[in-house]
Amino acid sequence: MTDKLTLDKSFAMFEYAQRIVPGGVAGIRRPYNFVPGEYPIFFESGKGGRIIDVDGNEYIDYLCAYGPIIIGYREEEIDNAVIEQIRNKGFCFSLTQPTQNRLIEKLIEIIPSCEMAAIVKTGSDATTIAIRVARAYTGRTKIARCGYHGWHDWCVEVKGGIPPKLYEDILEFHYNDLDQLEDLLKTHGDDLAGIIVTPVGHPLAAEVQMPKPGYLEGVRRLADQYGCVLIYDEIRSGFRCAIGGAQEYFGITPDLTTVGKAMANGYPIAALVGKREIMSVLADKVFLSSTFFPNSDAQIAALKTIEILQRDKVLDVVADKGKCFAEKVSKIVAESGIPAVFSGAPWMPFITFPKDETGLYKQLRTEFYTQLIRRGVFLQPYHHGYICYRHTEEDLDFTVNAVREVLSELKSLC
Asked: Are residues 54 and 111 in the same domain?
């Protein structure tokens, strides 16, 4: 077994933070989402595909800030473009800067569903305005939902503080279950405004799923049949599966799309894009405004990120690295004899442990991720990882060997 990391500064900062911040740190970054006592809680810096915590421990980072880091941390070309904008022109004004038009022209060029776009800040902003637009366009109320779509009232998993009437018109269905969706439509189709789905399935704490043959086509057909708006939540898959997102990769075009995360390599920006006829309700029927939505710093970052993604064929490189990594890890998992599953190749790697009646899976999961973090591999037990452009072959090979070692050690628990 590898020695436990020294995390004294992280723990001390967290103890103090709990006195001034509810929960110490925000939601998904709290220790219970990792392995309490084994993972750092505060980072100091990052560069490329690596991060350093406040105690000086260095990790190969596969969580990538929960998805925004598609190229790498502290990319000088992107940061310099933003700095130039800030120094020479500024970025926060009462009126809009021309960077808005330049960015949206680029989104129209690369995203199949994009004829118009609205720039916002977060994925939750984008998904929530997508729901509002769908309801205004159709004059209907209900929404069929599959996947995680943020923290707003209509979709958040934890319902504390939210009256049931604010989500009573949200109808859940499971990814890859076309029959379930069709049953919902048969019952509620006359009042169904939209279907929102992640084109790559990433349920909470479970295996990442790719669409079964005919699934996305079937969802598209049902949306057309019942006259509701098809919304792809591509906050995670956008600018990662392909430059035009999973819709480009799989060849199925929705009516509306939400994008964010990797769009600007870490700068806060997201967008709702879609068909002109539907998006046009934002001109008069639907109100959308925020002090910071038009800020140009993140728009400049997005433009430069997209330029690099296209120029350097970044997503081809990421996919190739992800495929190679997946092949090696999948083989190791299969040969280990440990009840574990590798999923998410090539973009969102995840090793999970299927539930069993004895609860052994919890012990295996905890020990697996404990031993990985001690070896300097940063992943999350309940959330898939990501491959970024700056992950080196050495990083990936080191991680493959770490997985092999840890799975071998887990045999003593089975």
From this structure: no
